[in-house]
Design a protein that fits this description.
With 225 residues, this protein is mainly β. It has a single domain (2-218), classed as Double-stranded beta-helix (4-Layer Sandwich), CATH 3.60.160. The chain has four helices and 17 strands. The strands form three sheets. Strands 3, 5, 6, 8, 9, 10, 11, 12, 14 and 17 form a ten-stranded antiparallel β-sheet that branches. A four-stranded antiparallel β-sheet has the order 1-2-7-4, with no helix packed on it. Strands 13-16-15 form a three-stranded antiparallel β-sheet. A hairpin with a 5-residue loop joins strand 1 (2-6) and strand 2 (12-17). The longest helix has 11 residues, at 209-219. The protein is globular and about 55 Å long.
């Protein structure tokens, strides 16, 4: 399997499959493909189906089997970036809801609950995230540009809520209140920040959908009461 991510700020990943190889995506993610690639839709059990629903994904997954060598494409649903992250048995990955685009290999997607109440209620990424384990390659949608860091043990990165897209499961995740009454009331940054603590790899995003939607909403005409 080979792949290419192209398209700039409106990205698409082109996956070149050899005969017998399979790529998995959520329902409706496929953009185009060559003849000779066969689709199979499956749910994987009631528990897994509802788990996907809670993480913002579709209930069903589509698997595309290459009967012969060919190309299949998956386009991002929002202007931004696509990142390919390798998952191994000793390095599961945590991602924001709705980030999953497609995967190749033996990758298992499950629900990940934030353990700390602060992170669950105020972290921006929400109480429920996605966990990817097993062995393979996962393609994630990133809102806006993707900026990546490798945090050393104990190294911290302070992130505004909603800007965390993907991180190794080894990265500590917590939410802290901004210090100082004036900072909270007049700083314009909200009341909380997310603290990411290494070791591990993190992918941050420059344009979270929720924040972008609020900006656009402010310019939309609203009917008078």
């Amino acid at each position: 399997m080979n792949y290419e991510i192209t398209g700039g700020n409106l990205p698409v990943v082109l996956v070149r499959l050899d005969a017998g190889e399979v790529v998995t995506c959520e329902s409706g993610s496929m953009s185009w493909m060559d003849e000779g690639i066969e689709m199979q839709t499956e749910g994987g059990g009631v528990g897994k189906m509802f788990g996907r629903m809670f993480t913002g994904e579709s209930l069903m997954l589509n698997k595309y089997l290459a009967k012969q060598a060919g190309e299949i494409a998956f386009a991002s649903s929002f202007p931004g970036s696509i990142r390919a992250i390798e998952v191994t048995p000793d390095k599961p990955v945590i991602a924001q809801k709705g980030a999953f685009l497609a995967s190749v290999g033996n990758v298992e997607m499950s629900v990940h609950f934030q353990k700390k109440v602060g992170g669950a209620l105020f972290g921006g990424e929400g109480i429920i995230m996605q966990k990817f384990s097993g062995s393979g390659l996962v393609f994630f949608e990133i809102d806006g540009s993707a900026i990546e860091y490798d945090l050393q043990p104990g190294e911290k990165k302070i992130v505004d809520t909603g800007y965390t897209a993907v991180m190794d499961a080894s990265v500590g995740y917590d939410v802290v209140m901004i210090k100082g009454v004036k900072n909270m009331l007049f700083g314009g940054e909200g009341l909380f920040n997310t603290t990411l603590t290494g070791p591990g790899h993190v992918v941050l995003q420059s344009m979270p959908i929720a924040g972008t939607a609020m900006k656009l909403y402010a310019y939309m005409p609203h009917p008078s009461n």
